[in-house]
Write a structure and sequence with these properties.
The chain is of the alpha+beta class and 184 residues long. It has 5 helices and 6 strands, in the order αββαββαββαα. It starts with a helix and ends with a helix.
């Protein structure tokens, strides 16, 4: 049973890690290199992440500077950013690309906060699905005689406690991200 509970926690933690990655990619009006994490550049026929082709620096609060290691890839990087869902047109000066993040309007902030809430709710559903799957696994173990009724009850309580802990973590992450969005 200990292994089942440990796997339960590992699966739930992976959901939290994914949520953190999702939140990193949400544009908050400030320059954040993480918004480019999902953008791939066609580099000699191979899709390559931007951060492997260039250095990305935050030069001012709302400006990202992308300097390619290979100057010939500048156009490809620019094209990849334009085709992505970043929503910012890069400025090309021939040597570097600049992404200038416009300040967010109040309406846009509220919209982003709603998106954050939806992403968090999806994560909570995934956590509850992990809980359900683990409890089903424990019930099968009881049915096959590997667990007693008391072990099953104890396991269900531990799983619920773990679920509550992860749901609370999601709420904390969500509140922090919403605060970040709304205070800019």
């Amino acid at each position: 049973m200990k292994e089942v509970l440990q796997k339960n926690d590992e699966r739930m933690q992976r959901r939290i890690d994914h949520l953190v990655d999702e939140f990193k990619g949400i544009r908050a009006g400030r320059a954040n290199p993480a918004v480019l994490d999902k953008v791939s550049v066609d580099y000699y026929g191979v899709p390559t992440p931007i951060n492997q082709l260039s250095s990305i620096q935050v030069t001012e609060a709302r400006t990202l500077v992308i300097q390619p290691y290979d100057a010939s890839s500048l156009r490809s990087i620019e094209k990849a950013i334009q085709m992505s869902d970043v929503g910012i047109n890069p400025q090309n000066d021939g040597k570097v690309l600049r992404l200038i993040f416009p300040p967010l309007t109040e309406d846009k902030r509220k919209e982003i906060a709603k998106d954050i809430a939806h992403i968090a709710e999806d994560c909570k559903v995934q956590i509850r699905n992990v809980r359900r799957d683990t409890i089903e696994k424990l019930k099968k173990m009881k049915k096959s005689g590997e667990l007693t009724e008391d072990d099953l009850d104890e396991g269900e309580k531990k799983i619920q406690k773990s679920t509550d802990k992860f749901i609370k973590k999601i709420d904390e992450l969500t509140a922090a991200k919403k605060k970040e969005i709304m205070e800019i």
